[in-house]
Amino acid sequence: MTEHTVKAFDEDITRLRGLIAEMGGLAEVAVQNAMDALVKGDDALAQQIIKGDKKIDALESEVDKLAVRVIALRAPMADDLREVIAALKIAGVVERIGDYSKAIAKASREIADRRHFEPLTLLPAMGELAAEMVHDVLTAYGARDPVLAREVIAADRKVDNFYNSIFRNLVSHMVENPSTISTAAQLLFVARNIERIGDHATNVAEMVHYAATGTYPADDDS
Amino acid sequence: MEQDRTYPVAALVLAAITAVGMAIAGAPLWLALAVLLVWAGSLWLAVASPPPSLESATNGSFNRDDMGQFIEHAGTPLLVTENRRISIANRSARNLLGAHILGQDIRVAFRHPEAVALLERDTSGQATVQGLVRRRDIWILNYQRLGEELGVIELLNQTAEADISRAHTDFVANASHELRTPLSSIIGYVETLREDGGKAPPETRAKFLDTVLGEARRLKNLVDDLMSLSRVEAEKHDLPQEHLPLRELVESAARDAAGPERQDRLDLNCEGDIEIRGDARQIEQLIRNLVDNALKYGAPEEKVVVTLHRLPEGDAELTVTDRGEGIAPEHLPHLTRRFYRTDPGRSRASGGTGLGLAIVKHIVERHRGRLDIASKLGQGTTIAVRIPTVAKTAEEVS
Question: What is the reported pTM?
Fold first, then answer.
């Protein structure tokens, strides 16, 4: 980006991007830790994720305040405005990703008898894919890279496929072992949450694309 | 020092004129001389050496651009931060994190919470960050503050070390697992025989003893393989010097591997007069492993073709081809890994140790050769080994 005549505006934008990156870093680690906590049954780690979500929320409100102030004081135009609007929306979505990680961490405490669950071997692979999407989309945001953003959008299909197969798997598991229905239902929610994380990473990717090019990726297809 | 001192000529002249003027005006000569002396003396004391010239000062020190160039070609990623923004990133850092990080907030480049916490502090320090660029990579972030605004970040890649230590633990875990399996069944069967106190019918006892013997042999094979693997690996770097006539070696080792009952399944097709520099025992083991694998995993009625010929480039090429179900493409890159099995149950049932191809790979590497595995599902597998001949290496030396 070229430098602005008003240097303070540059500083605000840089700070805004820094805050989003920091939020993203926290959310990324939260997703990974949530999957770890789920697989290993690590309640302490789950507790740590639940606590850590507060920090993401605090950062989101900081982004909101800064973005509103920038719009009010500097009246940005064109790509600057897109940048600020995208930051505002991305902050909201990243906060949701943090919430889903928290939900997974909460569910992991409810799961008993991990060893006999076949879907527990599929979930980490799915979680890894979703975490990778979050990682890539944040890198795309930092680099303002619309190509990488489109790759993230394409990867969401894989996560959806995973979700469908885990769903079927869990439903048949419930039919065969009614005693484990409560655990299986928890896992179903976890799978759903991971799937939502993938969707939200896609949303961020769309906004990154929008901030970088001014169009939404879907526009390119039509 | 004399040259460094500038003489205040004008002031001295003024002092002299004043003294002369005083003398002319009628003041006593001693008074005029005293005034001149005090004046000149005070001038001499007041004019100290001049301040160092500006030019010589800038010659020796760096400015920011120089600093950027100074670290540009360093192999480790280095970044300079100014007021929590990245102002300089050398080439390795740009390759690693992307060129966009220049001028950005530090958090855009390092968003991992540990890194953010480190860079927010006012002190220097270190942090270990997992997944900086790719997932599972591990970097140590070394942050050094220089004064109020400036900071230097050095990145050290720890991924390889973590990989090596993981590979080591994996190997030990795998090896102990493999050693334990036959031992467990030996112990199980021997305990049954002992507790039974000779009441079991003789045919059952014979069957148990056979199993014990079989498992004990498997254990011995495994230990043998582990030993030869470590021996080959230890000698990896010294090229063997013995001259070996390859044809005789291939034919005898292949027959040896087939044993009397599988002799008719061998189809040997070897050219003579090829000499390589090698270690006879290792080459023999290589051939035995390959032929044994082909006989074991190929279809039981089909022949195993062993060919040996000289390539136009001067290498000797040995191929072992079987007709069988082949190997799925996703397994091919991992075949030479220790204890890797495409079908664990079947391989164990046929007495495999999971080390055969790992040993082959190491032997080929020690002989500066090449190992190619080509396989089609449903058709079979061809393993080709190329080793430089004596004639070729002599040519290269001369």
Answer: 0.61
